[in-house]
Write a structure and sequence with these properties.
Number of helices: 1
Strand content: over 45%
Number of domains: 2
CATH architecture of the largest domain: Sandwich
Number of strands: 17
CATH class of the largest domain: Mainly Beta
Structural class: mainly beta
Largest sheet: 8 strands, mixed
Radius of gyration: 19 Å
Order of helices and strands: HEEEEEEEEEEEEEEEEE
Shape: globular
Helix content: under 10%
Length: 280
């Protein structure tokens, strides 16, 4: 049976993020102080940054949003949006911040899944993501806001993280260029990599539903890295959706989504589905 891994000093550490615990409004500057990228899940459709205040609602679709409650700095959160009418434009902002992202869908839909990727250094520990949809930015419905609490984790030359939406035990594995595999059974590597957040170990649901593996600044070896995700146990969940985020210093962040079903495999070394290979 997999042992429970205790996470110390990681949960909601506002000092690391440069803000005050419980603060929900980032200092006025730009939405880009919080969000680095927005993307339509599973596609190459990226949001475009617009400057200024959020557009005024104009009687468009009534929106509901299903979002995770926690994410790691430098990681991503997937948000499911459902409108009362079809829409082609999605506006994403942060309460208290000027500027916003617009995602234009390829066709009219009543639902859309959006992946919001966060900056590695954040000004606050909790903030409100804000969404609205319409046939255009000029015909938006009312805004819906969802709180997102940040679990402070390590960043650096390489940061790989995962978030998911069920009580399942999902495990992140990263193989470094030397062939060393970091995962729950081998939390550090001689190359400087570290698993510094492990969640829901052995079905002990601890809320974060995020994991993180990182190499420090100026400390990550050059070469090829392999990212795998293992469904250790469903923990009675019927379905688990996940988002993997890869941050490599000097490169644009990459996100990958997927879904697990079944009971899980109780896997260890070498287990899991390969998500991506990347080179630093």
């Amino acid at each position: 049976m997999r042992a429970r891994f205790q996470v110390a000093g990681l949960a909601f550490v506002a000092a690391v993020l440069g803000g005050c615990k419980g603060d929900t409004t980032a200092p006025a500057g730009s939405v880009t102080a919080v969000i680095s990228a927005v993307r339509l899940a599973g596609t190459n459709t990226a949001g475009t940054l617009q400057t200024g205040a959020l557009p005024t609602p104009a009687g468009g679709p009534i929106l509901s949003a299903n979002a995770q409650l926690a994410a790691v700095n430098g990681g991503s959160s997937a948000i499911g949006l459902t409108g009362s009418e079809e829409f082609t434009a999605v506006v994403v902002g942060v309460q208290g911040q000027p500027d916003y992202f617009v995602v234009n869908l390829p066709a009219s839909e009543t639902t859309a899944d959006i992946v919001v990727t966060l900056q590695q250094a954040l000004p606050v520990a909790t903030f409100q993501l804000t969404f609205a949809v319409g046939q255009s930015v000029a015909s938006l419905g009312d805004y819906v806001s969802k709180p997102l609490s940040i679990i402070a984790v390590g960043t650096g030359d390489v940061q790989v993280s995962i978030s998911w939406d069920s009580p399942a035990d999902v495990d992140l594995h990263v193989v470094d260029p030397s062939g060393e595999e970091i995962y729950y059974g081998n939390k550090t590597s001689p190359s400087g990599g570290e698993l510094d957040l492990d969640s829901n170990a052995a079905c002990s649901s601890d809320t974060p539903r995020n994991e993180n593996i990182t190499w420090p600044q100026d400390g990550a070896p050059s070469g090829e890295y392999i990212v795998r995700v293992d469904y250790w146990s469903a923990c009675d969940a019927t379905e688990t959706n996940y988002v993997v985020t890869v941050q490599v210093r000097g490169q644009d962040p990459q996100t990958f989504i997927g879904t697990f079903t079944g009971t899980g495999d109780g896997g260890g070394l070498g287990s899991g589905d390969e998500i991506v290979r990347f080179t630093r």
